[in-house]
Amino acid sequence: CDARRAFISGFDGSAGTALITQKEALLWTDGRYFLQAEKQLDHNWALMKDAIPGTPTQGEWLCKKLPSGSRVGVDPFVISYETWKPLAAQLESAGHTLVPINDNLVDEVWDNRPSPPNKTVDPLPLVFAGKGWRDKIVEIRQEMINKGATALVVTALDEIAWLFNLRGSDIEFNPVFFAYSVITLDNIYLFIDENKLSPEASKHLQIDVSLNHQNSGLSIELRPYRMIKEFLKWLISQLPGKIWISHKSSYSLVSVVPEMRRIESLSPVQLKKAVKNSVEIEGMKRSHIKDAVALCEFFAWLEEEVPKGDVNELSAAEKLEEFRRAQEDYMGPSFETISASGPNAAIIHYRSTEETNRPITADEIYLCDSGAQYRDGTTDVTRTIHLGTPSNFEKECFTRVVKGHIALASAIFPQLLKGQMLDTCARKALWDVGLDYLHGTGHGVGMFLNVHEGPMGISYRPYPDDPGLVEGMILSNEPGFYEEDKFGIRIENLVLIKKANTKYNFRNRGYLTFETITLVPIQTKLLQPSLLTSEEISWLDNYHQTCRDIVGKALEEQGKSSGLQWLLRETQPLG
Amino acid sequence: CDARRAFISGFDGSAGTALITQKEALLWTDGRYFLQAEKQLDHNWALMKDAIPGTPTQGEWLCKKLPSGSRVGVDPFVISYETWKPLAAQLESAGHTLVPINDNLVDEVWDNRPSPPNKTVDPLPLVFAGKGWRDKIVEIRQEMINKGATALVVTALDEIAWLFNLRGSDIEFNPVFFAYSVITLDNIYLFIDENKLSPEASKHLQIDVSLNHQNSGLSIELRPYRMIKEFLKWLISQLPGKIWISHKSSYSLVSVVPEMRRIESLSPVQLKKAVKNSVEIEGMKRSHIKDAVALCEFFAWLEEEVPKGDVNELSAAEKLEEFRRAQEDYMGPSFETISASGPNAAIIHYRSTEETNRPITADEIYLCDSGAQYRDGTTDVTRTIHLGTPSNFEKECFTRVVKGHIALASAIFPQLLKGQMLDTCARKALWDVGLDYLHGTGHGVGMFLNVHEGPMGISYRPYPDDPGLVEGMILSNEPGFYEEDKFGIRIENLVLIKKANTKYNFRNRGYLTFETITLVPIQTKLLQPSLLTSEEISWLDNYHQTCRDIVGKALEEQGKSSGLQWLLRETQPLG
């Protein structure tokens, strides 16, 4: 019911903005989606390629094209304050006005718009969460005191799920549920439709306050989901002091809080959530072993079935899901599997459909980017394979992508470095010969939460809220290369930030490095070994030995012999 | 007369901000100056170390410490609009107000304040500038039309010098002069005290309009320097349309232009100036050969004199200046020479004084960062040498600095990449063992203009106005390492951006690389060759061969035999 841009434009990628004037219709999206958008948009729509030289931003386009004194409408609940503010200023300086349209205009023309989801919300046991929700509230209140805030408005769904150790399924792939929360120093308000809470979730939220927390404002008051805006207005009139509401929240809510009383900084919940505790880390590693078992089975199956000529993108994705479903605590995919053969793999966020479905053969590269939600962790892994004889160009590109992947995986860097500063490591081997990829290199990943989370990331585009990298964060490492209409390559592992044992420690800043927690062999057949340094070969051999030790044991324990045979063959050392 | 912060605090580094309340006095500066500031500030002052975790920004400190409803004063002529705006907003959100104090309060207590300089302004002949000022005006007007501006206010002194092909000497080291300029589509206004203009400069500005430019608004109207603000007010009332005034201009001037009529983007003059034309590039290269001749003579002299025990930091700097003075079209140093021995070299922007002066001996590292202004170019070069037996730690650090220098010098990258994305290349070899340096890696350099210029740069700190790197820009490449109270290392060359001949050219983006134009040997004695890859050794050997070919020829032509002998010995191949 919220996919309004897909309804109005036809383009259903995960990122994009539709802009409609009386005469024109335009859609902005980024490099991951250029090909997909070109295919999905009809002749009424103009595609605006974000971040490509010459493409105006939405604000620039509006300022240039609109007759003076124009009013630009936007639904204030679907635009963040941080997007609203500069756009409003830019339009104002050109004589236009950005105006909130509370009744969304797409909804007016959307017959049969689906009703909002209303799935059950369940507690996430401490054995997976690692920290009780009351302890989290206590920590968050400390952050509020440090910041001088008397109330915190939490609007991001994954932050609410993390904070209260609850999980839901209102949004496909993301185990979250529709809710808002407001934390004051004395009260906790949760805005949710109460009938969503399972009996266990109700109990989890209401169980007796432990001794430590007695009388310290640690019981939850439930309020109806739709009441958040009215409540905020009331709270402002009742509670003195500053209200902390992230600039990433909707304009609709942020604008309720008078500027003088606002702290617009990033939510402290997002920062805490990004740094995993030891139980979460253990769970993430465990889920990655299970995931690797499923992937080894999948690739072994592919090798056996593809020559028979009956495997296609969709059937392969289904089979992979079947292998994952057999793993303990599997909850579903963490995003829609990208199962892409040949030219389809050049569409960075490709989604196979009946129309685009393509056989997987020994003649083309096959790229599979998939992930799962387990109760103990979230995975996101991409492998690129060739089941026949790759061309020299494909091998060179693959090798350079792997070189970039290794350079990032083995980087050592000072604590609190912005993730952006590591992006070049992953691209250097491609740039050396005039190649590149038009997407970021790494995003944060939740623990049985959203497969993309902030605030940090690794990209040539800045992450303005990146607090700097610290131990315990988990990110993806996913360089790629895409040759339009021919093939696509991406190698993606998740990496955990841990302390590096450096020979020196300049100014006691502390140095960090990555531990790769995704444990699936990288196809050595696609490598051009002459392009690899001896350090890179050692990295690959060590990585494959770790896969063999850890995943091999799990495959054995689970009696998955074809997966095990495949793993043993694919992890033979190069060096 | 403008060095108010140095007058009031005692700290005279090139960057810093003094903040004075009724009870406290604080000084913010960055990592280059921590040691210098600690030495220069007395007990009345607290040093605030910029960009170090835990150090509040000025705004944060003010919001936290001031009693509510405070008024914070600042001279609106010495704060840029881009600094004013967020600070004013931050203070406002904390209930304070930022107020312009038109009569600078430091001046009130500054007895014997020097009077403003009033040096002669001369034309820069076309043979050095490469493009006439009228052609530059025509290009700038095209930028104004593209941007929809009817007037452009030029406030940066180096932009005015570049635009009109004039050079002065009002500011030490920087061949600029006090002036403002306003360009409209029909008129050119230059705000300058007319008596500063040499007869040649007056002629240069007034000579008959050439055929091409006839009747196209290409004659200059001179106005008194102090009239700029009044003029702007008048212009706004007379001229319709948008006024382009960079957010880098002073709050005093920007605030004169109503927000609705303002274009705050970076001045187009800064962008054009950063991209050198072929005559400027030729001149820069020529000046670097002359500079290298002087440096070869200097290092040969040092080697001969130091053992006699009579050389110190100050006398060495003087001698270096003497060698440079002998070169054609030498105009003076481009900044105050950093001649630093032993622990003094750890002070990143050290300046030797009678009190700190230290002998140069065979027992300590000697770092010399210096540069010159020639009529055909500006130089900036740092070399670090040891005339005795360096320790293994010194050698390791030196080698890692050189590795970083080579990694940046040989980087290949896509056109329009932000310079920031290359910073990590220069640090990787240091980070690998837990070392780093707390300053940027590269700044733009003018052509017989300021030795530091924007808008691009290479640093972990973002350059928000970086338009992306393009062919023709000239930057420094200067990684370092500093061991407090022990030694300092920096290797700095200037590099010119040029096209790279890559095997592929993904999406026709164009790939770039650097050509090093500083041609002075890097001391191989300080290297630990076992830490170098064969590619790094080839780079060094090629570089030294180029020095030998080009500078050797110049030394020979100039009959500088001791410099030549030194060059030949110092450029022997490692490989």
From TrEMBL, chains A, B:
The keyword Translocase does not apply. Residues 510-574 form the Peptidase M24 C-terminal domain. PROSITE patterns: PROLINE_PEPTIDASE. GO terms for molecular function: metal ion binding; metalloaminopeptidase activity. Keywords: Hydrolase, Metal-binding. It comes from the Eukaryota. Pfam families: Creatinase_N (PF01321), Creatinase_N_2 (PF16189), Peptidase_M24 (PF00557), Peptidase_M24_C (PF16188). SUPFAM superfamilies: Creatinase/aminopeptidase (SSF55920), Creatinase/prolidase N-terminal domain (SSF53092). Residues 4-102 form the Creatinase N-terminal domain. Residues 282-498 form the Peptidase M24 domain. PANTHER family: XAA-PRO AMINOPEPTIDASE 1, XAA-PRO AMINOPEPTIDASE APEPP. Belongs to the peptidase M24B family. This is Xaa-Pro aminopeptidase 1. The lineage of its organism: Eukaryota, Metazoa, Ecdysozoa, Arthropoda, Chelicerata.
